[in-house]
Amino acid sequence: MSGTGKLKALIIQTFKLNGLSLKPDAVTLLQHSLSRVSSSDYESSLDRIIDAVIKSEPATPIIDVNTVESAVRECNTEAEEDIDSVFNVINLFDVPHYVYHQDRKKFILSSESERPVPSNSVFPDADSKTDAIVEKYTMIRQRVERHPELISDADRSELKPVEFLLGSSSGAVTGRHKIALLGVLTRGRTGKPCLEDPTGTVELDLSETEVGKGLYTDGCFVIIRGIYIDGTLKASSLSLPPIETSQTSRTYAGNINFFGGPSRYAVKSSSKLAEMESEFREAMFVIVSDVWLDDPTVMLRLNSMFAGFESSPPVAFILCGPFTSRWYGSEHVNKLKNSLKDLQTTLLRYPNLVATSRLVFVPSSRDPGLTNLLPRPALFDSVTSEFRSRLPHAVFASNPARIQYCTHEIVVFREDLVSKCLRNCMRLPREQYGTVPQHLSHTLLSQSHLIPLSLSVSPTYWSYNHSLSLYPLPDLVVIADRYNGFSVDSHGAKVVNPGSFPCNNFAFKVYYPASRQIEDSEIPPP
Questions:
Q1: Most buried one in 141, 249, 369, 414, CB count within 10 A?
Q2: Which residues lie closer than 8 Å to 183 by C-beta, 6 or more apart?
Q3: Is the pLDDT of residue 154 over 50?
């Protein structure tokens, strides 16, 4: 079959799978429209066109050329990006909620699923806790099942649910062949390790298990291979799910904007933004953590840093909390407001920087807030209103926060993840596979999530658990941790920790989006 014939068959088949038929002239129009698209993008382009057709609510399932023409025109509108889309700080409470639909083999908005999550629901019903975990499982499983290097074709058919073991007699699977399971690593009521998936729980024997790269924490998703004996899965190997690049994820998911922001489709699809990004070769982000505004030494070094960037201002300063060195009890809010006034006075000495650079403040769990659940809202308006009135480019973000710059997607998370993950490891990391930062980075990217821990260890708002996702992988993940600074490259993503500014010789990181380079920087003594 010729290339044209294959494209025609794909168009007709894809519409049929969605319960639609096309008139001949509509097929011709689609062939012409898709001829300008790379063959690798046929399916994602067709999915977008079909979504637009369905949203137009056609009177009949037989689609005419006018309906298709309108749908194609609508899908092309995202090419005209508004200038406001160059830089956006995205509140995690506004991130769109997509779930993977197993029957349709595609991601859809939660509001379109069989059990939609109520919008703006900080305290939903109890089922939402289970839904949050199942959504993570389903997303990782669809990734795992298509990964070419995961397991051999012979083993692929043996990626079984837990209920396969629980519903089988021991002799049916004992000693004949190993089986592979995907699930979340947990501890049972007796403290023994278990593997859990949506179908059940099985106890594990990890005494002779070969462990791969990563941090195997209570609450992370793993792939286990082993033999089922007397109600226990004797594991021969334990590994994290394979990491998938952003490009591969988008090949299957299309141009869905998982990241959030004003753009209707993923900014990665915008050639205009990509061109602007390549033009601004010197654009940079300055990343600082533990910005203690009540510490005179920290303020002195910040003043030196701002002075150094006055002649060449960065796109943004990303300033992570805590914004005080200690807790001041009932006077803490007033102390923080006064400290922000001191920072305001310092910044106003540098008019070029104030007029050009954004100031993004990401709070920590030690800053004022209602609870320690994640995501954490921005600092209270009552604390920041005066600062924002004098410095309109200041943005007080949630924690974590998402930043979109041209086609770049940046996630910033202020959390001491290294110590928390190490404390909750069921198996300590093996030195032969790399350093602790490399293990942590591998774990986060394999989980496609910022929290590789159980909800009891790191609680989240259940209905906003999706906003902590790293799927598809962003370009830069900033883990602002008290641990020593590091930078790790993996599968097209960078995981960076600037380290504690006051505790690590006033060190910070500078990120250049155009070249994707990280520069280690430090403020010398005056």
A1: 414
A2: 137, 162, 195, 196, 197, 221, 222, 224
A3: no
Confidence of residue 81 (pLDDT cuts 50, 70, 90): very low
Q: Torsions phi, psi of 116, nearest 5?
A: -65, 145
Cα–Cα dist 146/261, whole Å: 29
Mention every residue, 6+ apart, whose C-beta is less than 8 A from residue 159. Answer: 144, 145, 151, 180, 181, 182
Angle at 53 between CA 47 and CA 57, to 5 degrees: 140
- Which residue has tokens 């992370």? 220
Compute and round to an integer the Cα radius of gyration of the chain: 25
The reported pLDDT for the residue numbered 150 is: 59
The C-alpha atoms of residue 376 and residue 364 are separated, in whole angstroms, by 8
Check residue 231 and give left, alpha or beta (phi > 0: left; psi -120 to 50: alpha): left
Residue partners of 248: CB distance under 8 A and separation at least 6: none
CA distance 46 to 442: 34
Q: How far apart are the C-alpha atoms of 431 and 381, rounded to whole Å?
A: 46
Tokens describing residue 146: 């298509």
CA–CA dist 7, 244 (Å, integer) = 27
Measured CA to CA, the distance from residue 141 to residue 62 in angstroms comes to: 35
- 3-state DSSP helix/strand/coil percent for the chain, to nearest 5? 35, 25, 40
Task: Give the span between the Cα atoms of 402 and 89, in whole angstroms.
Answer: 6
Computed from CA positions of residues 92, 95, 100, 105, in that sequence, does the dihedral angle turn out positive or negative?
A: negative
Q: Looking at the DSSP assignment, which residues form a beta bridge with residue 88?
A: 404
Residue 194 and residue 426 in contact, taking contact as beta carbons nearer than 8 Å: no
309 alpha-carbon distance from chain centroid: 30
Query: Whole-prediction pTM value?
Result: 0.86
The CA distance from 347 to 377, in Å, is: 25
d(CA 121, CA 466): 13
β-pair type (401-405, 408-414): antiparallel
Distance separating alpha carbons of residues 147 and 243, to the nearest angstrom: 9
In three-state secondary structure terms, 188 is coil
Q: Which residue has the tokens 């600037």?
A: 498
The pLDDT assigned to 118 comes to 57
Contact 158, 180 (CB under 8 A): yes
Q: Which residues of 379-400 are buried (b: 16+ CB within 10 A; e: fewer)?
A: bbeebbeebbeebebbbbbbbb
Q: Give the alpha-carbon dihedral of 155, 161, 162, 167, to 10 degrees.
A: -100
Phi-psi region of 355 (alpha: psi -120 to 50; beta: other; left: phi over 0): alpha
**pLDDT level of residue 6 (50, 70, 90 thresholds):** confident
Read off the pLDDT band of 120 (50, 70, 90).
low
232, 170 contact by CB (below 8 A): no
